[in-house]
Amino acid sequence: MTDNKSARPAGKRLFVLDTNVLMHDPTALFRFQEHDIYLPMVVIEELDNNKKGHSEVARNARQASRFLDEVMTGANKADIDAGLPLGEPGESAGQRPTGRIFFQTSSMEANLPATLPGSKPDNNILGTALALRETHAEQTVILVSKDTNMRIKAAAIGIHAEDYRNDQVLEDVNLLYSGNEELTSNFWELHSKEMESWKKEGRTFYRVAGPDAAHWHANEFLFLNGDDNEPASFEAVVRTVEDESAIIETVKDFRGSQKIWGISARNREQNFALNLLMDPEIDFVTMVGQAGTGKTLLTLAAGLAQVLDEQLYSEIIMTRVTVPVGEDIGFLPGTEEEKMAPWMGALMDNLEVLTQSEHNSDWERAATQELVAKRVKIRSLNFMRGRTFLNKYIIIDEAQNLTSKQMKTLITRAGPGTKVICLGNVAQIDTPYLTETNSGLTYVVDRFKGWAHSGHITLLRGERSRLADFASEAL
């Protein structure tokens, strides 16, 4: 369902839903407000065919069927023919959609082109939409589908078709919160008169009042001047925001001799990331950036420092969604950790960097690797439901491939003393029907923005090698 209201036909509309819409978001049934919904019988059949299994698609198919069952509770044939009122359980009457849902209760003849045989489920839905356009001339009939080819076929035979976008977090991924903001060159001139400053436990704080402070978010980073590779003349993080005033604190500089597990920041954004990762008051961190920006390396270095050195957490748990980039290699033998090992190449590569040192002997390196291996655990997403993690440092890699529901399931596993870090690149999504604007990673970045115990940073510059940097730009 497009969000561009100017492009929509005027008046009350009748939306014909494709099966993939309900398997993507079962609550789509309640997202069309005053407009009516029509479900072809083949959609019910496809929901039934896809309900078995433990995948997200199967769970959504079952949930959609349960919603439909609740809507039909107590209804007779006459009620179904007249259209059933929609209402999401738990909603008050004023919040419920006022449209009705109609089910296909009889065969409908449609003049489909000979190139589109009606025996295929998709073509059956297209034929139903064509027939509805004749029988419901008072309404604009619109097909809603997540399938691009389905929308292309619909347009080719004259049916108005739209993508379902009600679950979009943002209109454009370029509007995604970056986690930092550059201050204007006259910032000190505008704010110095009413600014307060003080020091506490070796940290410097400022109270800033004015219109700029009103749109800042808690744990957002501010910087003034400076080059990407050099410390700016001023770098700070927003601690609290109240009305048009905010308290900001100067950040620690991890670009010099102050290293984390042998790793130092190579640019401004990496320095901001280490400030978030090393702050015990931050329970949830999101990091977005292209390949080679250092997301995994920084996160692991901060995790090892806080698990082994500071002992803030008992162990590191790393997980990721197992979506293959190419052909699936089939079943993998072994334990849960052994099955996940091929998916954790990034973890192994970065652990190798962190445990190597030119000053250590082979025996010392082997002892370090054994110690680290005991404190770093690999877990599968498939077994996360019902678990509670206490005092853990949890890393969710490739988080852009998770849906918003999966992300909620994972984050709510966190118990007292646990820190969760989500890493990903929204430009590399491999999960069907997920896009940059409705990815679970985009969802949590937007929803956690401004919470006092969460932080986000977008890493911009690759630090892998000159070859990788050029490939990212040129390819």
Automatic annotation (TrEMBL):
It comes from the Bacteria. Keywords: ATP-binding, Nucleotide-binding. SUPFAM superfamilies: P-loop containing nucleoside triphosphate hydrolases, PIN domain-like. GO terms for cellular component: cytosol. Residues 13-152 form the PIN domain. GO terms for molecular function: ATP binding. The keyword DNA repair does not apply. It holds the Pfam family PIN_4. Belongs to the PhoH family. This is PhoH-like ATPase.
